[in-house]
Every structure is written in structure tokens, then in C-alpha cells.
Fold:
Amino acid sequence: MRRPSACASSRRGRVAARSTCRGRRAWPRSLPTSARGSRASTSRIWDALIPLPGRLGGFAESDLTIAVTTSPAGLGVRTRGRAALTRLSLSDAGRPLIAAQELELAGIDAEWPRLRIERVRAVRPTVAADRDAEGRLSLMALVPPAGPPSPAAAARAAAAPAGSGLAVEVGEVVVSEGTLTLDDASVAPPARLRISPFGLTARDVAWPGPRAAKVEMKVALPVTGTFDATGTVSLDPVKLDLRARLAGAVLGPYQAYVPVAARIRGGSTPTSPSRGRWRRG
Structure:
């Protein structure tokens, strides 16, 4: 039995690993790893490792166990543990788009093509969206342009056996104290909407497949008012079945979206819940 270890660091970030090797082949059967303190100033390194459009910043921390096994069918890798990002930020051309005080993934259990996460928690996430006069949304900068797949990606897809696509399950998603801002120059007069705070809880999330996740949402509307919703959401195909309640909403902030010249004032009063359904596909 051998117990090799390795440690690597980049500025103040640090990665440590310890493994146990057994058998004639020196394959590590269990490889506990941890990574802590990745500085936001090292975002160029993470940009190369994580191919996201835009500039990624923040601090990463993880406590993972990686088990590697061999069999006649090939090499198997299973990863379990926890990972977190703090002071997360994603920007494009200097414009902040998405940020969060903390993003935590607990109870990770990944073995291709299956990914199971017990709990995803996002604390104080912020989304800043701009829409220019031509209607272009700044968040679309995060969407890769459509195009044919690379030859390597096409070859991998052709070689993959049927039914080997990624399957994701999340026990619970909790979003707390979120903020959404929209600066919209496509309407006259230009509109600025700020929704804060908003919260969301979703349970039993699965993709792909038609299984419905249970959701609860609470949103504080611009100026005053609340929007609450409970129900179910399916991701494949997209289907919503929600019971919603709107109370105390002021109409003034939405003036630019009403196609009349008159000045709109007033608000909504507490009403009984209403139910709505929407399905795509």
C-alpha cells in the first residue's frame, strides 16, 4: 500500500490531495481533495479552467472525495462531497451581470452520466440586466453563439452509447435575499425596475424528464407590493402550474410598458389567489 500526496497552490489559493493505492495497478481507489482560498485576482486562471463567457471572479472552497475504479468496461470516477463559491461575480466587458455572496453545493454525488446534489443554496444573488434601444439583452452575452459543433465534440457524441446523456437531480434549491435590476432603454421613457428581495425554494428538481419540482416563491415588487406563488415546475418539457397572489402592487413603475398616452396611477389590493398554467412544447 502506498500513500502518495500532492499539493499545489496559485497565489493564495491552495489545493491538497491524499490518495490510497491498492492492487497491481497504481489506481487511487480513494482521493480526498480540498481547495480553499482561490483569490478573485486569479480569475484568469479560472477562466481557462471553466469555459464560461464573461469574466469570472470570487473565492472557491471544496471538500471532495474522488474514487477511481477500473473494470473491463473502462475507468470509473465518482466524486462526493461539498463545494462553495463566495463573493462570486460574472461580468462581461466590465459590466457586472451576476453575483452572489455565497453559492453552496452540498451532498454532491457525481458519477458520469449521473449528478446528484442534495442542496444548492444561493445567498444574496444579484442579477443586473440591461436592454438597449434595439431590444438586445445584456444577459445574452453569457449565451454562446449558435453554430455547428466542433469535430471533436461531434465525434464524442457519435461514439456515446444511447441513453448516456447527463442526468441531474437536486434535492433542494434555496435562493434567499435576491435582487434583480432591469434598465430598459427599449421603451419610452426608459424604465428602471428593481425587484428586491426575492426568495425561491424548489424541491425534487430533475433534468431531463417530466418530473415536476415543487416550488415556492416570494417577491417584493418595485416601490411596494408582493407577489407570492406556489406550485410545480417541470423542465423537460417546460411546464408551470402555479397558484399566485398579488397584493399592494403600485402600477406607476410599469407606465412605459402600457401603450397609452395617459398617466397611470394606482395599485392593486389584496386579492384571492389565482391559478395559472403554461406549457412549452
Remarks:
- DSSP finds two helices and 15 strands in the chain.
